[in-house]
Structure formats: structure tokens, C-alpha cells
Amino acid sequence: MCxxxxxxxxxxxxxxxxxxxxxxxIDFLSEIGVQAKLLIxxxxxxxxxxxxxxxFDCSFSPISRCYQDRSDGQVIPRDYDIYAVFxxxxxxxxxxxxxxxxxxxxxxxxxxxxxxxxxxxLITRTLFEHKPFxxxxxxxxxxxxxxxxxxxxxxxxxxxxxxxxxxxxGAMGRVAAVFDRIRVLHEIRVExxxxxxxxxxxxxxxxxxxxxxxxxxxxxxxxxxxxxxKEKRASVDQRLVxxxxxxxxxxxxxxxxxSHETFRHFRLRxxxxxxxxxxxxxxxxxxxxxxxxxxxxxxxxQALYGTKKRELLAYALAAFHYRLLAQNTPSPVPSAVxxxxxxxxxxxxxxxxxxxx
Length: 357
Description:
By secondary structure, the protein is of the alpha+beta class. The chain contains 14 helices and 14 strands.
């Protein structure tokens, strides 16, 4: 019996997806030989004691932080990072290492510094609150329209139609509003808004050269200028955006290659998702580590192979399994889990060696 520990949050401040979907994925695993325990917003003491019990073969979390209610009504992050605790206590886990996750999540240090992002600038809360005129001076160098977004939060947190601004005055007002609403946020990125760009999302599952990809185009209605926080949380039939596969083989191949190259460049593991715009060239606007195990991660596999959302945690375990095999390390993942993954996806994830199961 494979023993899996899952950490999640009741507060959807990172775009982690609904808890009921995660519970359904855990229930599915229980039917195929995985004993999973779910901890919701544990304290660091509770998490450490659980891990020190040595009762788990593997851990996973769809978020990097847990949260708590403060006495003044503010929801704040707990003072630890889930993946840092996993790593420092030598717990095997699905996903990228703590250091590489931090880098990939930072839109400025990752996308911008490596020439992948649209032109933009970083605004810190400290400078904005103490020297707003200096921020205003920087904003006046920007090309508008621009989009205002948190520098390192996923799930379209802080994004709605008002996130697009047409001048420096609008940018100053929007930055103030986002900092006021999200008190735990310390950095905002102001980025050139590419109004005519096509938008794609690409999931990468696996490790090193042995990966499978799910390439999806995000189609917005005329009413939806951005893929907003509200849209992410709406049911599929109520959204103003929809997903479709990419029939152009050359375009699909280029998107998959860019995502795989970026995955390897940042030394990511097991699973990630890349949000990409196509305008005059490709622009990488977000690296999701860990990604939400939902429609955006798996749409192409749903269309081609009948993949269901409740199976996606099994896909993540399969990636973890093949990583262990490539390292000549025994895997606790039962074969029943691997059989839930379509053969073509499994073959893509197998290490480039004769090893298989």
C-alpha cells in the first residue's frame, strides 16, 4: 500500500482549485491502492510531527503555503513554506524542489530576467508606500496599455478587467487597490498588455527528456479581456473562456518545445504548467509550480484519451514513479496507479532506459 500525504488549504489565495475536486482525486486513489491522508492548513508543528512519524512514502501539495485567520479578520499565510518543510525533513514529494519553485513562480526573476516575458517593471510595496513619486516616474517609462498583476501569485489572483490600465495614473490607482486588497502581497508586476495575442497553456508531466505535454489554446469571448480570478473559480459552463486543442502540428510542437525547454532550464520536476502568449513572438507570462490539477492542466488529454479530472493526481504519482526509476530508486507507486495513465502518456514519461513497469 502506497501512503500519500496531501497538504491543502481552505483559503483559495493561490488558485489551488476547489477542495472537493482534490478530495475526489484522493478518493479515486484510495480505490487503486493508495492510502492518502489530507491535512488542511496545518500549523508547522502539526506538519513536522506528521512527517516525522515516517508514515508516508510520498507527499504532495497543490499550494506552497497554508493560511490562517487573524484576529482582525485578515487571512494571512502561515510562517512556513510547505515544500521547504518537505525538503528539509527529507520527505519524498511530488513536484519541484523548494529553491527552483521559488524562482519559477517569480515572474520577474524567471520570465523577465530570461527574456521570456513582455516588457515590464517590478513595483515593491515598500517603495510604493514610502516613495510613490519614484514609482510614478518608472511607470511613465512604460508602454501602455499595461496589465497589473501580482509578481508571484497563481490562479489569476488579483486579475480582473480593471487590471488593464491605459496610463500611469490608472496604473498608480490599480497598484494601490491591489496592495490594499491583498495585504500579504509585497510585489506587483506591471507588464505590457498584448491585446491581440493568442493565449495558450501547456502542461509538462515527467522529468528531464522524458515528458508528456498537454497543449491547449485559451479562447476568450469578446467580453473577457483577461482570464480573471472570477473566471478561474466559475464552473466551466459559466466561464467566458473555453479551451480547445491546437490542430496546427507545427504550432503545437513549438509550444511543447518551448515549455519543455523552460521546464529543463529551471530544473523543474514531475509537473508544471506554462502560460504562453503568441504575438510577434512567443511570450511566457506565468510558470505554475505546482499547477492546479484540473482542466487547464489536462484539456488535450481529456479530448484525446478521455482523461478525467479525478485521475490527475494519479498522473502526478506516475511522474514521481518514473523519476524514482530513473534514479535507480525503488518506487512505492502501485502498478494500478500507472494503468490509469494512457499508454502514450506513460511511454513519454518513461526514463530513457530499458527500465519499465
